[in-house]
Amino acid sequence: MPTLENSITADVCVIGAGFAGLSAAKGLIDRSIESVVVIEAQEVGHGCSGRNGGFVFSGFNLDEETLIKKVGFSHAQTLYRHSETAVKMVKDNIRDFNIDCDINNSGILLANWFDRPEILDDYKSLMTEAFGVNLGEYDARECRELLKSAHYYGALHERGAFHFHPVKYIRGLANALIAKGAQIYEHSPAVRLEPISDGKHIIHTPKGNVTAKTVILAGSAYMKGLSPLYDRTQTPVATYVMATEPLGDRLKTAINTGAAVYDTRFDFDYYRPLADTRILWGGRISATAMNPPDIKDKLYSDLMRVYPQLEGIKIDYSWHGIMSYARHKMPVIGNSVIGRPADGVWFTHGFGGHGVALTHLFGDMIAGAVADGDETYRDFTDHYGLKNSYGTLGKLAAEATYRYYILRDKIRG
Ligand SMILES: Cc1cc2nc3c(=O)[nH]c(=O)nc-3n(C[C@H](O)[C@H](O)[C@H](O)COP(=O)(O)OP(=O)(O)OC[C@H]3O[C@@H](n4cnc5c(N)ncnc54)[C@H](O)[C@@H]3O)c2cc1C
Prior knowledge:
The chain is α/β, with parallel strands linked by helices. It has helices at 19-30, 64-71, 73-96, 117-131, 140-146, 166-179, 228-232, 295-306, 358-372, 378-381, 391-412, and strands spanning 7-15, 36-39, 55-56, 108-111, 136-138, 155-158, 162-163, 183-185, 192-195, 201-204, 209-217, 235-244, 260-263, 270-273, 279-286, 315-325, 332-335, 345-349. It folds into 2 domains: 7-52 and 167-234 and 327-382, 3-Layer(bba) Sandwich (FAD/NAD(P)-binding domain); 108-159 and 235-325 and 397-413, D-Amino Acid Oxidase, subunit A, domain 2 (D-Amino Acid Oxidase, Chain A, domain 2, 2-Layer Sandwich), CATH 3.30.9. Strands 1, 2, 8, 9, 10, 11, 17 and 18 form an 8-stranded mixed beta sheet that branches. Helix 1 (19-30) runs parallel beside helix 9 and helix 2 (64-71) crosses helix 3. It is globular. The termini are far apart. The relative contact order is 0.19. Bound molecules: flavin-adenine dinucleotide (FAD). Residues 15-21, 39-42, 46-49, 51-55, 189-190, 218-220, 222-223, 226, 239, 241, 282, 321, 323, 351-357, 359 line the site of flavin-adenine dinucleotide.
């Protein structure tokens, strides 16, 4: 894709080609906004959207119990339904654009790390009663047929969830949008956002610029310096992933299911079998150590703890990504981020580790608001607005909280 090297105009300029930015662009084009430009600092999918574990599931970072307490039963149902719509949006894109992204419809397992059946029982009841979600259930013995590890005591199965190859997906999505008329520029970081007359803005990049009436900030934790409010209302949190060598028949000596897996600890492992018999294995979070050098060894030791029968396997790749968290753990959306009312600058961030599906919804809600004045996004803003995350102090507080929960899980386990 080209680099922006001249001055252009557009109806809307989207900054950031992750899932949120591209979904906003798609939503605008679907609503007949013809001139949509996306500028990306690096390459499409450079941020979390190209680095994630590939779990596509409903719900939020914020747990359902807390959500219900905060917004009430009925509104929690509305929000949860939105998250289910988000999952469907991803599935529809894969189908409509015929994107080859190794989709695996085996669902997602939540495995119980603790020998306490009530953890899964309570969660299953809550999901049925509050949201009508009927999770499948495996007892400890059945679970160990699927996940051949002594660490698990049963599992719940989210059958409507799926997993996929996020980089293949996002590249497919970007190409489909270009075919529909979007202009996407790579290696074109927005370095300055300048309000001009007629309610328009100029978005400057090192070699060119875009003049647009509407701007959408979708850079999440990778965006810095365009809007102080955008920056100070998110805490960047790192998480880490590795991919093993292809394991052939050995894979099934450990993971005897096509489902993706995570567990009931605060700092859970998340992993899934890939089409070529590798395991993609992720875990650990930190608000202070973004890219530690020993991450491969640490993830390998996490994998060995769960599946010691795989000792000696090679790790072919490892990487990290930086997620964006708001203090309330819900995504945020709105406009007026640079301080003028209705100034035509929309924003979204705060998807944390639960953003693959939700970014699609939030991008689309911005598009609906911009194109049609649709106020669906207020379902979220009425309860979860922008909150100061207090910079370095906020990061240290987040790290301390993580340490506390990790220690608590060690004591419980
Ligand atoms: C390792 C890892 C595993 C994860 N696993 C899962 C999972 O399995 N399931 C799940 O639901 N979620 C998961 N997540 C979270 C999910 O990936 C994110 O919430 C989601 O991708 C966020 O998308 P986004 O579009 O908001 O931001 P990003 O994908 O981070 O995209 C932001 C883009 O903006 C660009 N940008 C920033 N600043 C500028 C600028 N000034 N000019 C131009 N471009 C700019 C960046 O280069 C980047 O490409 C995971 C995250 C990580 C890091």
